[in-house]
Amino acid sequence: MTARTSFYRWTSSLVVVVSVVVAIGCSSVPRRYIWMADTSVTLTSLSSDLPAHVGKVVLLGGTIVEEEQNEQYVFLHLKNRPLDQDYKPHRPPSLSGPEAGEYWVAVPQKQLPSNYQNWGRVTVAGRVTAERFQTEPVLLLLYMRGWDTSGKHNVWENIDPQYVPSSPLSVH
Questions:
Q1: Total tally of structural domains belonging to the chain
Q2: Which of 56, 86, 138, 165 would disulfide-bridge 131, Cβ 3.0–4.6 Å?
Q3: Pairing of strands 73-80, 57-69
Q4: Which of 105, 100, 111, 103 is nearest to 125 (CA)?
């Protein structure tokens, strides 16, 4: 093997390694949540057959449109924004189609970041509950990444994914 052949092998190996590192680093969601999640679940399938998905971890995108609170939890109401291949949310093709629906995310109040209300869009990893608010599915937050209008992003992770929230009184 010549020095030139050795150099080309080394260079091509380096390119492959750098490409893999960049590809892994570009995701909006940590790998542990991608591995846990049923990535085939969409808001449409979740809404139409909630019992089949209870307990599963799903990945959804959205924008925060409303919130409800009780003593322990904040329930964020999100308008769905389908995720792209990098798990970043985007506006659905049709604003009146099934993927343009809404869902709720339950979050312990003590874990609220101060700037979450400034987020223009979010990516959510959450566990599906059997509960519905106003006929919309509810997820227990495991992980959320939010982008504000300037493009900056913030991460919000639930340390205890075993919590069980109660519904706000205004929902009953």
A1: 1
A2: 138
A3: antiparallel
A4: 105
Provide CB contacts within 8 A for 102, sequence distance 6+: 62, 65, 77, 78, 79, 80, 136
Tens-place pLDDT, residues 55-79: 999 999 999 999 998 888 889 999 9
The answer as to whether 151 is a domain residue is yes
In a domain, residue 7? The reply is no
CB 70, CB 168: distance < 8 Å: yes
The domain in which residue 92 lies consists of 28-171
**Residue 163 within a domain:** yes
Tell me what the pLDDT averaged over the chain comes to.
79
**CATH number for the domain including 113?**
2.40.50.140
**Cα 66 off chain centre by:** 17
164, part of any domain: yes
Q: What is the pTM of this model?
A: 0.73
pLDDT tens per residue across span 110-149: 767 777 788 889 999 999 999 888 889 999 999 999 887 7
Instruction: Assess contact for 77 and 67: CB atoms under 8 A.
Output: yes
